[in-house]
Design a protein that fits this description.
The protein has 671 residues and is an alpha+beta fold. It folds into 5 domains: 90 residues, Phosphorylase Kinase, domain 1; 157 residues, Transferase(Phosphotransferase), domain 1 (Orthogonal Bundle); 143 residues, no CATH class; 133 residues, no CATH class; 38 residues. Helix content is 48%, strand content 9%. The protein contains 27 helices and 12 strands. The strands form 4 sheets. Strands 1-2-3-4-6-5 form a 6-stranded antiparallel beta sheet, with no helix packed on it. A two-stranded antiparallel sheet has the order 7-8. Helix 2 packs antiparallel against helix 4 and helix 24 packs antiparallel against helix 25.
Length: 671
Amino acid sequence: MADARKSSQVVIQDRYEVLSGEPLPEFGAGTAQAYRVRDRRDARTSLFALVCDPRASVRFEDFAISADIESPYFMRMSDWAIADWPLTEAQCPILIFPRPEGGLLFPQGGGDIEPMHEDLAMEKLVKPLYHALRDCRNAGLMHRNIRPENIFLDASVGGNAILGQCLSALPGTTQPFYCESIESSMALPFGRGPGTMLEDMYSVGVVLATALTGKIPCQGMPDEEILYAKMAEGSFAVMTRGGRFSLTMMEGLRGLLNDDVLERWTLEDFGQWANGRRGSPIQTTGSIRASRAFSFAVHQFFTCREIGYAMSKNWDQAAAIIHDGSLDDWLRRALGDSNMVEAVGVAKMDLPPSEAENDDIVVTRVCIALDPDAPIRFRELSVMVDGFPSLISSLDDNRALLGLVSQVLNFNFLNFWIENQTTSRTDLMDLVRTLTQIRDILRRTAIGEGYERALYELNVSMPCLSTVFDKEYVIEAAQVLPALERVAGRKKDLNSFIDRHLAAFLLTRHSAIKGGEFRDLENEVDPYLPALTGVRVMATLQDSGSPVRAYHALCERATAIMSPALKRLHSRVLRKRVEAEVKQAVKSGVISEVLNIIDNPQTLADDQNNYQYAVMEYGQTVQKIHQLEVERQNRGLIAKNLGAQVSSVIAGFLMTLISIGIVIYYFLIKG
């Protein structure tokens, strides 16, 4: 790992020099910033680096998959590392990529280009994209980062298009609104989920339309206006507005931009068209349109999808049209779709009594029934089922939205959404079961549970967000102790090792941690237990390594954190002896050796027994001293009482002798 906080460059794998003073904004992607890279081994190689957000998740699990893709039309990562970045003074993932000589197909930030001729587009754009996506699919990689600003041209492959990288952010989260299908764009950006290859097909259609027209579609239009236009006119009409196309090109655009997921082209369809198969242009059917409009929220709507979306954007008004029967009347008389009438009826009626009067639940279920392909909508929340993991990864400071997520899971909307799908979604069943477990985890309040546990359970590539790490980037349990060693070396005031994030991270990433280890972290009765518990967890991590590695700075900090616990020892002699043993043990760098001295049960028990015996002896001594003091202060009275007692005894003794003498006299002498 490179240490470059005092340098203007970072060296990756002793080979690549990332120049922090030479940004390349045209190659940036979302929150990842691009910089020029020098290759020490080959100065002729042109490279750039993406420096990723240290608090965001990147697709680490896809790195190895991406490395197996050898297509010349796919931007393959050259190398990567987690390194110190001088501009943020924190560790960040840094990804190295080849820099295409031809630059971008479309400039970052918009701007028109010269429209691409259809024949050239077919040869230089369509075919390369098909080959790149085919290789991605065969390797098991879902791209989900296809947009005009992520398509490059490269003279080294004949000026053909190269599909840009997809590893610097979670699938779909950085996609422009217009590049997403209708159902995906309805969701929050982090709630879109990876989707299927059909999402990538739609994005390819947008890229193709953009290249042919030379314009970014819908420039200057608000996102909501774009969405309503797509629902009313169809994506093909909106994305190709102003363009003139041959029948061949119209066939491809209609197939790729089809709003019906069952009719949208698959990768195989796209490949056959790219390789010369021709047919008549597909006429997109779109949603069933009613014979008359439905009035809601000062607008007129002709399809169920439009009404469902409008209800989700006018939430507090939506329940009224459900309860007053106007929606049912429109579905029966204007739409004439008996299946939809039945689906909405089930959404309203098939509820337990405890939920039937909850307007939020009814509105969500009716929205699902009206548009089963759309996300689950619940007030401000809008999320696809497979988008829950990425959505939860974005909610660290948004507890209001997290509360809505908990309610969605509690009200069992996931299974209702699955039941309403027109095709079987067996691919989501494992995730639904996992989310059911997450529902229970979110209810727990103990440290290591709740939101933090859900975050790391659902996102295997999420870095640990613990404030303990400040500038460290930790994605694996094996990195925890080395990171804490560096933190302990520079933060002498560190007084705690464990917070809720680190506890949850360890529970999900380390097999030796089961959860019970954190129970005493919130103990308010014994002031020493929380500190000792945190150190004990660190000792468990260190001892589970093979071989056990010494961490000297961490061990010293652990000793300082535990040192107040020495006050539990009552014997000053014993305390000094333990302090001497601790001082010697710290040199080993092994936390458990120090812990076993400070928190030794036998030493504590013996000290407690000796203390109790000393207390008992002290009590007895005090009692005797008190008695003597009382006697000293009352000598006269004591002497008088004692004299009276002695006189009484002597008198009694004399009377007894006299009585005996009289008896003897009368019975022996006179008798």
